Amino acid sequence: MKQLIELQVNGETYAVPVTPCDLLVDVLRKKLGLTGTKKGCGQGDCGACTVLVDGEPVLSCLTLAIACRGKKITTIEGLAENGRLHPIQQSFVDHGAIQCGFCTPGMILSAKALLDRNPAPTEEEIKRGLAGNLCRCTGYKKIVEAVGAAARALAAGNLAGPPPEEPAAGEPAGALPANGEVKS
């Protein structure tokens, strides 16, 4: 039987009809349209579905939506502010740590939880902080470097990435440039 619950996601409150067995990942993706949270293995092994619940990384594929009532949920869509990437997001772009991008939201949210707890982690602490997140594209060198650089940027007070670029004349916002090249 469905019941209406309120979920606080990325600073917004949503009234969402859920069944007692609806998973948070499905509610976020299908009912709220927040598709940045990825559904990977569905078993809690890959970390692609990681979101923050009250600031702690949680596997949304194993978490019942109903258990998140009254808690603050942060998805990858909630990190950017005023069109500017969060420093961790920007660092992943700058260091080529995004590869195909499927694991990136979970990696970034795990990194955020780590840096919120430990603003100056060692390389070993970064590796441990990301241990629940799998990347099938690459080794983790660039990802670890990106998290370390983000920690340094945050410590230096760099709290936002560059401003969003204005689209070229005649191009809709968010469209790829006419030449197809994506700037990083």
Mind explaining what this structure looks like?
- The protein is an alpha+beta fold and 184 residues long.
- It folds into two domains: 3-76, Roll (Ubiquitin-like (UB roll)); 87-155, DNA polymerase, domain 1.
- Helix content is 28%, strand content 14%.
- The protein contains five helices and five strands; from the N terminus they run E-E-H-E-E-E-H-H-H-H.
- It has a five-stranded mixed beta sheet with strand order 2-1-5-3-4, sandwiched between helices.
- Helix 2 packs across helix 5.
- The longest helix has 15 residues, at 141-155.
- It is globular.
- It starts with a strand and ends in a 29-residue tail after the last helix.
- Residues 174-184 have low confidence and may be disordered.
Give the H and E element order. Answer: EEHEEEHHHH
CATH class of the largest domain: Alpha Beta
Strand order of the largest sheet: 2-1-5-3-4
Largest sheet: 5 strands, mixed
End-to-end C-alpha gap: 47 Å
> Any idea what the shape is?
globular
Helix-residue proportion: 25-40%
CATH architecture of the largest domain: Roll
Number of strands: 5
- Report the average pLDDT across residues: 90
Q: In the residues, how many domains can be counted?
A: 2
Structural class: alpha+beta
Could you state the CATH homologous superfamily of the largest domain? Answer: Beta-grasp domain
Number of helices: 5
Query: What is the assembly state of the chains in this entry?
Result: single chain
Low-confidence stretches: 174-184
Share of residues in strands: 5-15%
The CATH topology of the largest domain = Ubiquitin-like (UB roll)
Q: What is the radius of gyration?
A: 17 Å
